[in-house]
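Below is how a single chain appears once it has passed through the pipeline. First comes the sequence as given, then the structure the pipeline wrote out for it. We keep one example in the README because the format questions we get most often are answered faster by looking than by reading.
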Amino acid sequence: MQLTDSRDISADRETVYAALLSPEVLKQCVPGCQELTGTPEEGFQATVVQKVGPVKATFKGDVTLTNMNEPESLTLAGEGKGGAAGFAKGGADVRLEEIEGGTRLHYEVEAKVGGKLAQLGSRIIDGFAKKMADQFFENFANAVEGPKDEEAAEEGPGDQPKKGWFKRLTS
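Resulting structure:
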């Protein structure tokens, strides 16, 4: 399965690039992420719980960052095992382009699944993968640039970082 898209983020390239390397931002943005540890240099270890069709699984896996060309591009590659549910592996090439008012984040994702997950059929898997990618980059944009509405920024849940916290932290 392959997916290509882009998203505009209201932050400079350096801020967006730094957020892509931050375990705190990534944990907040990956749907179903329970735990994420590690560093960009050594790689990240993640635990993600997801339900794909009738199959619910806890995936434990590793994510590595390569081809790091700050602040222009990087490649993320990951592989996770979900026990009896099977496995998922894939990667994303990310390229950052300066645009007026911020950064355009381009991504090309390739993913493969095996085991019970592969038996669900490509239509279900492809739809799920697109939904996950869209949700990740929506969460990522919100973490970096914050909500569009100032009142919403003040009403962040008490135990969760307020949206846009990363941009404010690095500004």
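The radius of gyration is 16 Å.

See the next section for the split statistics.
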